[in-house]
UniProtKB/TrEMBL annotation:
Pfam families: DBD_Tnp_Mut, MULE
Domain of life of the native organism: Eukaryota
Domain Transposase MuDR plant: 142-201
Occurrences of domain MULE transposase (ranges): 334-428
Protein name according to UniProt: Uncharacterized protein LOC130499879
Length: 481
């Protein structure tokens, strides 16, 4: 709501507030006559969601408690802008000075901050109405266009220069005025924008010469910061841009936008885009307790365990979905465990435990995140796993030859039998000198049905590569599985 007199209002939104109560609160706070004015509530879906949707996705309207609740639920995890419009446009206590649009930002603390844009309608013959469609559309600049502030105007200009492949320079810039020209001093292209009044944040284009009279438009090409590149990347490729190689991004940006950026800048831009979409690694770890809590709430029966150190920093994580927990009783009592390195900023290791169904298909059981594969971390993981998989003689735990796993299994699952994964074993054989040659024999030995057959194949292995046969014997044939 563009409202000079009522200005901003803080509207507290408590948990469980009904839609009708919210409507009443807005009427009261902005002094709008309820009987003759109907309010319309709507909000745009957050940018992170819109990225995967068609460009013309309309705003979401809120008319009842159910829609209001789902909006409140959504804004617990991401900021939303609630737009409240007065339908017939006659405001109770204020007879003039409004453009009937209200923008409220609802923050996750269940409080709404209602911002009022500061525009006076009385000057409307000189200043255009503020429509939201005039905002955010970087790359399009018109005379008489409004910008929320100087930063938004500068941003639009930067995007424009990239889109049109020219370089510009700031000729004048202070709190009230911004003049930007083409890098070629003889060129007439220019934009002049001024602040509307001292208290307002709005910038208004007062002069715009859209035509370049220079011939050097592509000399040097436009310049872009990593932030601009990251924005372009997301705009053009959405989430798939996050996994593109910097070399590829660089060549596309060069072709499309004439940008000639250094490798490090492109790499940084991709990291910034990742942070924007996925959040920073720090914030992701910080959200883990809440996420785990919600996971258990949404999937009753899910097991989640988070271990922190004495300074409340992340140490270990374990989780197993309710479906995995419930289904294990129908699986073969074979648990395969393994760890793999994580490549994120904080590294660490992802631990996985799977079972097998009657048809030897992989059945996911549990996941863990720990600092490294060692006895302490595996022991912690197995201790959590005991709530799903109990120890007894019919259980087989299979892993690679990691000593830490062997020790931890012996401690936590003393009754269970242990097996060595022959897939890992064969991979180890292949990586050793002459290993590739005898790998096939090893595979046949693994599949051997009788001891005699096995002995025969193994003596051939011994004959061909004595060193590797010793290695294989060390790996304890009885544990092969
Ligand atoms: Zn020019």
């Amino acid at each position: 709501m563009v409202n000079t007199r009522a200005r901003s209002r803080l509207l507290p939104i408590k948990e469980g507030l009904k839609f009708d109560e919210m409507v009443q609160m807005v009427h009261e706070n902005f002094g709008i006559n309820r009987s003759s004015n109907e309010l319309e509530f709507s909000y745009a879906l957050p940018e992170s969601m819109l990225r995967d949707m068609p460009k013309d996705t309309p705003p979401v309207f809120v008319n009842n408690d159910r829609q209001w609740d789902s909006m409140c639920e959504m804004c617990k995890s991401m900021p939303l802008r609630l737009c409240i419009s007065v339908k017939n446009g006659i405001l109770g206590n204020h007879d003039q000075g409004f453009n009937h649009e209200d923008t409220a930002t609802v923050n996750p603390e269940d409080t709404a901050v209602v911002k009022s844009k500061n525009v006076n309608r009385q000057d409307s013959n000189q200043e255009p109405e503020v429509e939201d469609s005039n905002f955010h559309d970087a790359k399009v600049i018109k005379k008489g266009q409004w910008f929320k502030n100087k930063a938004e105007l500068s941003w639009s200009l930067r995007m424009l220069s990239i889109e049109r492949k020219f370089r510009m320079v700031v000729s004048k810039s202070d709190k009230k005025l911004l003049v930007v020209k083409c890098v070629d001093t003889s060129c007439k292209w220019m934009v002049r924008a001024a602040k509307t009044n001292p208290t307002s944040e709005f910038f208004w284009e007062t002069k715009y010469i859209d035509k370049h009279t220079c011939f050097s438009r592509n000399i040097g090409g436009p310049r872009a910061s990593s932030r601009v590149i990251s924005k372009l990347l997301l705009e053009n490729f959405g989430n798939s841009g996050l996994n593109m190689k910097p070399e590829l991004i660089s060549s596309i940006m060069k072709k499309r936008n004439g940008l000639d950026s250094k490798y490090w800048k492109i790499w940084k831009a991709r990291e910034e885009a990742r942070t924007e979409v996925l959040g920073s690694p720090e914030s992701s770890y910080a959200q883990l307790p809440v996420y785990m809590h919600k996971l258990v709430m949404a999937n009753p029966g899910t097991i989640a365990s988070l271990e922190v150190d004495s300074e409340h920093r992340f140490k270990y994580l374990f989780f197993s979905f309710a479906a995995s927990v419930k289904g294990f009783k129908f699986m073969r009592r074979v648990v395969v465990v393994d760890g793999t390195f994580l490549k994120g900023k904080f590294k660490g290791v992802l631990l996985v435990a799977t079972a097998q169904d009657g048809d030897s298909h992989v059945y996911p059981l549990a996941f863990g995140i720990v600092d490294a594969e060692n006895e302490a971390s595996w022991e912690w993981f197995f201790n959590r796993l005991t709530s799903i998989v109990t120890d007894d003689a019919s259980l087989v735990v299979i892993s690679d030859r990691c000593l830490a796993i062997a020790k931890a299994v012996a401690k936590v699952y003393p009754l269970a039998q242990r097996g060595i994964c022959t897939y890992h074993l064969r991979k180890n054989v292949i990586s050793q000198p002459g290993g590739r040659k005898i790998a096939r024999l090893v595979k046949t030995a693994i599949k051997a049905y009788t001891t005699a057959e096995f002995d025969l194949i193994f003596s051939e292995i011994r004959r061909q590569n004595h060193k590797l046969s010793v290695y294989l014997e060390d790996a304890d044939v009885h544990l092969w599985s």
